[in-house]
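Sample pair:
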Amino acid sequence: MLQLLFIVIFVEMVVIVSLSFKTPLRKLILLILDRVKRGSGPVVVKTVAGTVAVVMLSSVYSMMLIKKRWMEDGNATQTDEILMAKNLLETTLMGGLLFHAYIIDKLHHYIKELRIRRKTMETAKKQGQGFEDAGGSGSDKVRVLEEEIATLRARVKQLESH
């Protein structure tokens, strides 16, 4: 079980690093995470996480029993020390696994949110540029019309004076 936990943690670390930086693997990982979060994927992930949490709590309970036995006997046997070290390692790895899974979930969420915000900003900028272009040509038209009015008024005054 220890080898499996180490492999899963290293895979999770690779995923976290790939999500943190723009790598070619990032799009593929985002696509996979999007697919996992659809349908029955979240239920499966929560079930696996719950199972890992229960096994982790069982390991913590075993460590508490060993520690209680040490306190009652006053000394620790080699078997108890080995079991304690094994349980401690398993518990640490399972906790790390759950933590990395949470970090991956949050990174995926933030990357998706960032993508959505960027698209909204682009559309807002395009709309703003459209208004500026229309407004700029509108102000040019107003300026031309004001100049035309001024010239026509001058012409009217000139005709009235004759």
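DSSP finds four helices and no strands in the chain.
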